Each structure stands twice: as structure tokens, then as C-alpha cells.
Amino acid sequence: MDELPITPTATVESLAGRKGVDENFLGQPVPLPALAGTETILLPYTHFSVLMRSDKRLAAVTGVGIDGETLTDLDRAGIPWKLDPRIPADQQTG
């Protein structure tokens, strides 16, 4: 995998190489919808993307490409929720 994992101390630099959701994951283009007249911020991660509405401080759209046959259960207990360092904290819900 050519992308870096998110660490508890994610930085703008460590997230810079993320490609986001593969819009051709289903074998044909399925782009994330745009919200006409609404300011949004695209946040690409590994295998998914979030289109944030900073005025609402929440995700307006999320896109994910997951092959359900290869899912693995991970214990996420004790992993704290972190804000994304690419946008100001006052534009996110913690």
C-alpha cells in the first residue's frame, strides 16, 4: 500500500497523499455528488472520502469503496476520535 496509515498524531503532511474513494470502484464512474450553492471541503482518506460542510460542522456526503468479502473485524476500543488537521477545529464536530 502506498498510503500512510492515520496515526493518533495525524498531520496535514501525513494525510497529504490520501487518494480518497476510487470513483471507478464499481467498474463504472460513480462520482461523489456535488452540493450546488453549498460550500464544501473534500477530505480524501484511504478508500473513502468525506465532503464536509463547514457551516454545519458535519459531513454532507461520504463515499467508500469496500469489498465486503475481505472485511476484517478490528478492535477499535480505546482509539480516541481526532479532528482532521486539514480544516480548522471550529469547522468540525468533535
Task: Give structural notes.
The structure is a single chain. By secondary structure, the protein is mainly beta. The chain has one helix at 12-15, and strands at 41-44, 48-53, 58-64. The chain is globular, with a radius of gyration of 14 Å. It has a domain at 1-30 and 38-66. Strand 1 and strand 2 form a beta hairpin. It is built from one helix and three strands.
Briefly characterize the structure.
The protein is mainly β.
Uncertain runs are none
Taken from the alpha-carbon principal axes, the silhouette is globular
* Percentage of residues in strands: 15-25%
Helix content: under 10%
List the total number of helices: 1
Rounded to the nearest angstrom, the radius of gyration is: 14 Å
> Biggest sheet: strands side by side, in what order?
1-2-3
Order of helices and strands: HEEE
The SS-based structural class is mainly beta
User: Mean of the pLDDT scores?
Assistant: 88
Quick tags:
mainly beta; three-stranded antiparallel β-sheet; globular; 94 residues
